[in-house]
Amino acid sequence: MPYLAKILLYPIKSLDGVEVEQTKVLASGALEYDREFAILDGQGKFVNAKRNDKIHLLRAFYASSFGANRTISLQIPGQKSPQVFHLDEERQTLAAILSDFFGFAVMVEQNSLMGFPDDRNSPGPTVISTATLIEVASWFPGLSIDEIRRRMRANIEIGGVEPFWEDRLFSEEGDLTSFEVGNVRFFGVNPCQRCIVPTRNPDSGAAYPNFQKTFVQKRQATLPSWVASSRFNHFYRLSVNTQLSISQTGKTLQIGDEIEILSSNS
């Protein structure tokens, strides 16, 4: 039986994540505390790894009980020890420190209703399987499963299944695949289009040679025969984007929850 193996939240968009045992669903369909904060420049644009690879050099640590302990421990290159900031009370101080690091003024903004997802039409958690991460890691000598996990930055990881099982969670254009994680009803939308971030070392920002080219070749070669292939206008896609209805608000996802597909493309 497929089951929920990991939950990863990213309290500040583009910074490191935190693994938690459970999380709640917001009315928007997003997970509570995921991408709740974002770093923005003076023009209101995201300061993220897509636009500024220097962000890879920052190390962020959170307590696993992040909801009760709203602090970030931030290690900045060149400093002996991490600095701790309370995200509700010391955001301006954190922004000043980050401004010094980047060399231009930034703000740390909050959206507790939806967070700051890349896809505002599908703000639900992204889904991938552990087996997929293991398979993708095998494509790149020297990369571990944990590094691939950090490059892909999915929220929900499924155990007990074969590689690319999550590709069952989307259908042809215009159709949604419904599935349940515990008692939480999801709609799978489409395979997630990847950006430049997975090509880089999550600690240094250094590019892995020919990462995207290799990924595309391997992804096409291993694409399951039953997959909704029309959703792949290109093969630089991995994990599944989701939506949740407002009726799921306040429900809890917990490690070990069983996963069941209610309608499927296979």
Automatic annotation (TrEMBL):
Q: Which InterPro entries match?
A: MoCF_Sase_C, MOCOS_middle
SUPFAM superfamilies for this protein: MOSC N-terminal domain-like
Domain of life of the organism encoding this protein: Bacteria
Signal peptide residue numbers: none
An MF annotation (GO) of this entry? pyridoxal phosphate binding
Residue ranges of the MOSC domain? 79-262
Q: What is this protein called?
A: Molybdenum cofactor biosysynthesis protein
Species in which this protein is naturally found? Nostoc minutum NIES-26
